[in-house]
Amino acid sequence: MNVNQSVPPVPSFGQPQPVYPGYHQSSYGGQSGSTAPTIPYGAYNGPVPGYQQTPPQGMSRAPPSSGAPPASTAQAPCGQAAYGQFGQGDVQNGPSSTVQMQRLPGSQPFGSPLAPVGNQPAVLQPYGPPPTSAQVTAQLSGMQISGAVAPAPPSSGLGYGPPTSLASASGSFPNSGLYGSYPQGQAPPLSQAQGHPGIQTPQRSAPSQASGFTPPASGGPRLPSITGPLLPGQSFGGPSVSQPNHVSSPPPQALPPGTQMTGPLGPLPPMHSPQQPGYQPQQNGSFGPTRGPQPNYGSPYPAAPTFGSQSGPQPLPPKRLDPDAIPSPQLSELPPQQKTRHRIDPDAIPSPIQVIEDDRNNRGTEPFVTGVRGQVPPLVTTNFLVKDQGNASPRYIRCTSYNIPCTSDMAKQAQVPLAAVIKPLARLPPEEASPYVVDHGESGPLRCNRCKAYMCPFMQFIEGGRRFQCCFCSCINDVPPQYFQHLDHTGKRVDAYDRPELSLGSYEFLATVDYCKNSKFPSPPAFIFMIDVSYNAIRTGLVRLLCEELKSLLDFLPSLLDQIPEMFADTRETETVFVPVIQAGMEALKAAECAGKLFLFHTSLPIAEAPGKLKNRDDRKLINTDKEKTLFQPQTGAYQTLAKECVAQGCCVDLFLFPNQYVDVATLSVVPQLTGGSVYKYACFQVENDQERFLSDLRRDVQKVVGFDAVMRVRTSTGIRAVDFFGAFYMSNTTDVELAGLDGDKTVTVEFKHDDRLNEESGALLQCALLYTSCAGQRRLRIHNLALNCCTQLADLYRNCETDTLINYMAKFAYRGVLNSPVKAVRDTLITQCAQILACYRKNCASPSSAGQLILPECMKLLPVYLNCVLKSDVLQPGAEITTDDRAYVRQLVTSMDVAETNVFFYPRLLPLTKSPIESTTEPPAIRASEERLSNGDMYLLENGLNLFLWVGASVQQGVVQSLFSVSSFSQITSGLSVLPVLDNPLSKKVRGLIDSLRAQRSRYMKLIVVKQEDKLEMLFKHFLVEDKSLSGGASYVDFLCHMHKEIRQLLS
Ligand SMILES: [Zn+2]
Question: How far is the CA of 61 from the centre of ligand 1 (A)?
Fold first, then answer.
């Protein structure tokens, strides 16, 4: 492939688009030609091979000494456990069935020409950036919580009063639980043998097999430019990341004077600036009588909002918030009279739905062009296109703030975490180009001699082009003769737009042999499937199903797959092993001298006598005690030891669990977590109910774009430094993130701290470099660059924040915290930090106003509601029905989630089904996640990326019931149903189509659960109505907001 083939279309926007005639890409296969490592530029941070940590010579910035704790502590918080308790050669158990599959080297997709995105206006910076400090002043001034008790709202007659048997809810759910719950009495007979028979050395298969993959059922169409399956960096053409996230919001009211322009590169005034005096009522739902705090199910609900009425905004008369009436979030701790003391209209407080909708309207119509430093991107929930003009797309990097305080004092004052959520191999929508691949031949990528940063658009060429000054460390470097080019009158290289590394925010370099382990180009990675064939796995039909599926996933059909189900049909084996299985797989990769992925299918707690043997240590009595953290910690150090070996071999482990009871997910997930793998959990797996979900996940997982044997390093310009990391990876030093595997769904979150003063003029720069082996076995470097603004005014910080990213970071921080601290302490820390952030704004940025008013920064007006969702999540506030394994599972999942995923995970989407016209093909507008928004005459879909519910109101029209469920009345609908009948009518087609579309947007298949109003299962569903008080004691949104206000006032007084 030659880059000349990939001449991009003539730019339709005002800046020349790269044409790349200037450099030649040697054929991709040609890596072997690279011989003499005469490279003047060190390999990736020093020697890549073996990842020894050698400090780059002359590195100007000292390794982190003071400041944040080394990331490694974060990674292996339980590392005290005895490492190396079992020798790695201790494979006492027979090897297990092994099927290996290998990927093919193939042509690379990068650099393929892109279709021009039609008629885009020639705008450089179309975006009105971020809301000025539009204060949400009015917001809460609309709250009336003075001592006067509002009259009890009239009973709505809606028919759903308080749930009846709340107390009996626990443990009584049917098998369709959130993450699945366990049935009783399924224990199989006991016997002795081990669960993983026979491991065979993997046979390297011929390279034509990769073409045999079946496209994922729900994966959507592929990119036309994809020439073969499974190539790295390819995006499947599935649904664009369209949906799901939200972030900042459009500017409401008039801007405070002097807050708009901070300099030539500062944020521009918003283009769309809906005048929104004060916080206006939301559009979803009209405004009924003032409602009481709904949490306290004791009283009947007030009149339900009339959906669909869409009445325009009606300004509410300003009211004062009486601080004395503010309850603590734990309503249950209050004296009874206080529970009904205050009345706040939920429509008068910031609504996620409104913010999302406003951003879609304001920013979803034009592409986000990355040429301007420090621009806040549209929310993750807004569907937008990105044009790379020098900064990485928000699909790769999102920041908590795009304007960083110049000093650490300022940063400390504001308490706003400075973090970036990075998804280096993110999938892109078909309209956007995959990063171009640059080949500098034997000399390898051009780098700064001192800090080793890679050539990027921010490097400054000087002395007529003979030298360049590093934008990260200021070191002056010579330009090698073969890279020399003249400068134009502005000091820019005349070939700047011909070279991706000089004009784009994201691109790739072909790596030379110096970037390879043992100075040897890698072999293509291999896949190994390791199947548990113990009693439960056979009994549930899992083994047969899996073997059938693998036959269609692979285009060679090892007869073994036919034999396995028969071979073990009569097994009574119930004891399984775990560590030796992974060990065997890893040894197989080692023998084959390649990186790869193990797919491990496992059913039970590994209690057999072998390394990594576990005992059942689940104990719910530990909840809310100082020992609760032990539930999240691995039982033994054997798993970390194993994970470390896997990382060294580039062996990524994906774990598919099928438990009927406690399997200790906290321990079993250690290896997937540290090797960049994924964990899937199918509690009480039954082929008939769960096969679609499992097979869909498996297909998608097998076809994921993955980078293997990877190392990621984040460099920063002088003044800030990456100090902490979150995600699924391993770190053996404080700077290099080691990933046995990294797929296109996974993120690495990086926190930054100041180590010097920043400069407003020069801003701050990030460069994320990921060295990895592609699925085809090619060694590459993917580079993402991002320039941020720096400010001396706190208002600029608050005006350029992204709340969704903040929440992503704070959730990860808290979820890691539970490993070492009591859950309550973690929650308190979050609340305090949030209060400090908002108090600092109030004190320094808001215009003077009465102390009774809660004033929120425009960009952070959803911080309280979202933070409350994190606080009441299963990990931080477990309900009675959540199992220890599910908490560990969720905790582990969130660690690698991107911003869109955490957004919908913590604040689920609730979509009414019958209000929009039947012929409408677009998704119905979401409504707020609260019970009082539900009408018993309607049906709703609720999804959070993992769970999917269809809630059916008791008064839904009979015709609707018939059309959707093919039964004649509400009472005949099967509660807990997971598949809708396929019926040939518009409503059925529409609802099933919507479900398919929701599933396609998520990285995991969401199993449907039909919930009927007033049915027992409804408790499960209500758990996700996050604006309400939760059964586990979580505060309602209204109560939490009041509590937050109280905290802020205390800080200010
Ligand atoms: Zn440098």
Answer: 10
For residue 55, the CA-to-ligand 1 centroid distance in Å is 14
User: What is the rounded CA–CA span in Å between residue 996 and residue 826?
Assistant: 37
Whose structure tokens read 């301007």?
372
* Cβ atoms of residues 888 and 679 within 8 Å: no
CA of 341 to the centre of ligand 1 (A): 61
Give the Å distance between the CA of 742 and the centre of ligand 1. Answer: 27
Report CA(46)–ligand 1 centroid distance (Å): 14
CA 454 to ligand 1 centroid distance, Å = 8
Q: Which residues of the chain have pLDDT under 70?
A: 1-343, 555-561
Calpha distance 17→388 (Å, rounded): 10
- Tell the residue number behind the tokens 């009495």, with chain if given: 185
At 367-389, the pLDDT tens digits run 999 999 999 999 999 999 999 99
- Predicted model pTM: 0.73
3-state DSSP assignment of residue 783 = strand
Give the per-residue pLDDT at 732. Answer: 93
Cα 737 to averaged position of ligand 1 atoms, centre (Å): 20
**pLDDT the model gives residue 555:** 62
Residue type, 133: S
CA 472 to ligand 1 center in whole angstroms: 5
Between the CA of 19 and the centroid of ligand 1 the distance, in Å, is: 27
DSSP 293-321: -TT-TTS---PPP-TT--PPP-PPPP---
The residues that bridge with 135 in the sheet, in sequence order, are 857
DSSP state, 544?
Answer: H
Amino acid identity at 829: T
Is the distance from CB of 373 to CB of 265 less than 8 angstroms? yes
Q: In the prediction, which pLDDT does 158 show?
A: 32
Distance 321 CA to ligand 1 centre (A): 53
Please give the distance, rounded to the nearest whole angstrom, from the Cα atom of residue 63 to the centre of ligand 1: 14
Q: For residues 650 and 710, what is the distance between their CA atoms, to the nearest angstrom?
A: 8
- Model pLDDT, residue 547: 86
Alpha-carbon span 871 to 811, nearest angstrom:
9
* 877-891: b (≥16 Cβ within 10 Å) or e: bbbebbbbbbbbbbb
Residues 82-106 as b/e (b if ≥16 CB within 10 A, e otherwise) read eeeebebeebebebbbbbbbbbbbb
Task: Kindly compute the dihedral angle of the four CA atoms of residues 140, 142, 148, 150, in this order, to the nearest 10 degrees.
Answer: -120
**Closest C-alpha to 248, from 350, 119, 346:** 350
Residue 202 per-residue DSSP state: P
Tell me the C-alpha to C-alpha distance, in Å, between residue 839 and each of 132, 142, 408, 799: 18, 19, 18, 15
Please give the structure tokens belonging to residue 801: 């924040």
Burial of 266: CB neighbours in 10 Å, binned 0-12, 13-18, 19+: buried
Q: How far is the CA of 458 from the centre of ligand 1 (A)?
A: 11
Task: Measure 134 CA to ligand 1 centroid, in angstroms.
Answer: 39
Q: Is 382 helix (H, G, I), strand (E, B) or coil?
A: coil
Question: What percent of the chain is helix, strand and coil (3-state, nearest 5)?
Answer: 30, 15, 60
Neighbours of 848 (CB within 10 A): 5
* β partners of residue 725: 750
Is residue 877 within 8 Å of 1032, Cβ to Cβ?
A: yes
Distance from residue 789's CA to the centre of ligand 1 (Å)? 20
Ligand 1 centre to CA of 770 (Å) is 17
At a CB cut-off of 8 Å and minimum separation 6, what does 404 contact?
411, 418, 720, 752, 758, 764, 788, 789, 790, 791, 797
How close is the Cα of 716 to the center of ligand 1, in Å? 10
- Tokens 């009436």 belong to which residue? 325
Tell me the CA–centroid distance for residue 217 and ligand 1, in Å.
47
pLDDT in tens, 313-327: 343 333 334 333 333
Helix/strand/coil for 50: helix
Separation between Cα atoms, residue 223 and residue 864, nearest integer Å: 40
